[in-house]
């Protein structure tokens, strides 16, 4: 833990962020996520955001032609035509349509290997925008909106409002609402995410970082109990819309940290909830403070796929296959 703490302090100082969630008894209580910060006057939360309702957000967006490298593309309407014709324009990949990718430029986790760490530099320079601006970005060719980041969690009130307004302005046509998240939000907000995704044919993608709480804390600076509880809560609603999976899990195979010892219990946890929940195992690429690690090896991936299937999962997918290193660290 001293090594982890030193790395985390370095990570946080580099980006001018508090090294741990602040707990000022007289501070502003933020209930948006697992950290439950109490932000002192003039301070910021663990996510780097000032106190407040988050009606405006540090956010940017772009149009991504479908099918795209979305983590759920192997099972979702945009990537496969699942749920056609109700939830997809085509019986296969939705060529000719676009995903509106909405990037929230803040995060309540501190992954030392963050693949999108640039938001930590860009985010504070953004002028916060109202949800109405995002609605204007939806075009007749937009068939899904994916709220990701960073993570949408610290700015969820904005994402939910933007989703509601977008659906309101685009009634009677396909517009799926999807989220990609670390899953550590407060339950009331999660419930609204589920309602919007269920009603629109969208998918909620949980990025599960690790099973062991200490490994999870070392990698992310956050506990994993809320994420796992929230995942189980969404899984209970999985059968409400069988044609398009409401819930998809992804796990990044960080060499030396997220190996078979982690995948086995995570996969068992998911399989016990419902073996039909799709799981994408993602290959790691070195970034941020963990840029001295190798890419995930093909052998590491193979071992983890086997472990997930042996745990009973029926839909295991390999993502970022092009990043796999064709060897084995153990050789
Ligand atoms: S959203 Fe940010 S300020 Fe609010 S509890 Fe989470 S980390 Fe703290
Ligand atoms: S945003 Fe949703 S529907 Fe669109 S490609 Fe991603 S998971 Fe599929």
Describe the model:
By secondary structure, the protein is an alpha/beta fold. The chain folds into 2 domains: 17-50, no CATH class; 53-323, TIM Barrel, CATH 3.20.20.70. 30% of the residues lie in helices and 16% in strands. The chain contains 10 helices and 10 strands. Strands 3-4-5-6-7-8-9-10 form an 8-stranded mixed beta sheet. Strands 1-2 form a two-stranded antiparallel ribbon. Helix 9 (260-273) links the parallel strand 8 and strand 9. The longest helix is centred in the middle third of the chain and has 14 residues, at 156-169. The mean pLDDT is 95. One iron/sulfur cluster is lined by residues 66, 68, 70, 72-73, 76-79, 99, 144, 146, 176, 178, 202-203.
Q: Give the integer mean of the pLDDT values.
A: 95
Q: Which class do the helix and strand fractions yield?
A: alpha/beta
End-to-end Cα distance, whole Å, is: 29 Å
Total number of distinct structural domains: 2
Q: What ions, cofactors and ligands are bound?
A: iron/sulfur cluster
